[in-house]
Records
---
Amino acid sequence: MELIALRTFQAVVEEGGILAASRKLNTVQSNVTSRIRRLEQELGAELFFRKGRGLELAPSGRVLLDYARRMLQLERETSAAVRQAGEAVGELRIGTMETFAAVHLPNALKAVRAAHPRVELRIFTDTTAALMSGVLEHRLDCAFVAGPVVHPGLAFDELLVEELVQVHARGADPVRQPLILFREGCAYRARALAWQRAIGHAQADAMEFGTLDGILGCVAVGLGWTLMPRRVVEQSPHAAELAIGTVPDDIGRVPTGMIRLQGGPTLAAVRTLAEAVASTVRT
């Protein structure tokens, strides 16, 4: 029984169908279908009932799902344990929000390099939702995300509380401007939309950008307003053109920290990284 077949089976169940699973696994539908068929032939059991275009998990499939999850979790733990044994010459895959990377990560990465000079550091920026998936799917060893994070497969270590502030161009009236946001999956996005509704902005529409510089640059020239961590705004090259306004704590205070797989071994370099971030925040 191949692990890729079990991953495919789990994806079909969790995503609700062949097409969605193929997108998640970045493969074509025919590959997903053939893997499921081979798995059924190998086990001698039907895993799904076909109902029109949909699929329903068969009793044999429900049994397999429990074992598949445990086997895939064991595979992830095995991989992490082997990498931990040889981590002095391995790699550390770190996920981070772009805003966190801009302010908190550089000094912490220097500390990791000093303590683990032969560990290769690989940094990936994305939204909180995508980073959570990356850790759960074992593509990332850890990630810095906006919380709180409550997930049975993830451990969340809070390292700081980020303060979000309303940002707009000096002299502009944000009430009459559209909101400028990161793309779907950003933890700040929902808070910004909630604040927009709470204060009754005349402009209910929003623009999306994929980069921090893109958002603050557009805000600085008066194209819109946004919510952003105070420290990011104050350190931005556009700071002189930006005005900052406070928001209520339920919107503005965001617990932020590191996520990693729940129950798995923690790499020494990951511990060093978390300690370095916490030390940087304290200073």
Note: Residues 89-161+255-282 form a domain with the D-Maltodextrin-Binding Protein; domain 2 fold (CATH 3.40.190.10).
---
Amino acid sequence: MSTSNANFKNKCVTQVNCTFCDSLLCTRGMKAVLLADTEVELFSTDIPPNSGNVVGYHVVAPCKPCLLSCNNGHFWMFNSDAVSTLNRLDVTGLNLLLWGDLPELDDSENEESESPSEEECIR
């Protein structure tokens, strides 16, 4: 599923850090809710995070009802109490960076890359 889906394109992009060691987990985070219980707030990302601590979970095989429901296509979830977040800014440094403004991830991109692109480093 494309993360530029109309339902999510106006959501803020967040940097997600581990609250236990303050290490950077990802720069493509999004505030979300648990599909099974929308009262549960969490954060998610569409690429594997850098993590040495248990800060959430990875959906390995989503069920068909979840895939068909309104979802952001993210399969790495972070528990809100295990992470701290910071809203990222766009290239001007004046406005919040929105998901609709992020480039799509292409399938050939190395998901394990430790050096984010120049655009991903902008906060």
Note: DSSP finds two helices and six strands in the chain.
---
Amino acid sequence: MKFNNIKLLLASLLVTVTITSCSNDDDRPTGPTGINFTGTFAQQDQMGRPAVNTVFVSSSMKDNFNTTVPSQQSGAFQTMFQNNLEALSPAYANPGDANALGLTSAQFTGLLATDVLNLSLDGTTTFFDGTNVLTGRALADDVITVELILIFGGENGLTASENPGLSDDNVNANDKPFSSSFPYLASPW
């Protein structure tokens, strides 16, 4: 009789634990529930045009640049960009020197200091193809080489004859083909 009471007590305890620990969680979402805007967010980095912030913003000014709204960046940072460009590139050694776009150092850095990715909604989308300039960016665009040409290449267009060793990153294609469907990125390794 005592053994049956112990079995009954253990069975009751097992049923009680099972009932209290189980819940009806079928109605709960099992994955992300959407964007959560609670909390505090801070702008960490602006990278509208790859490498521009990295190359032209002085270390002591990174936080200021990254938290400045783009419409105010050119006014606040163009002089610093121009000084850094002229110190970096021999293609702008003489007053009036221009790049492949025909822009002087002041004009070019005025454009670069507003770190946004421009986009053409009704034309060719490209970073630079010799005709269309900063009208967007396709995945296959060789953005770094284009930037190197505009910084170091001088006035001779895409030939970059003034400083050929500095005007090409020598990476001519992605390591894997891009997908033909959205999001168009190459598959991971």
Note: Residues 52-166 form one domain.
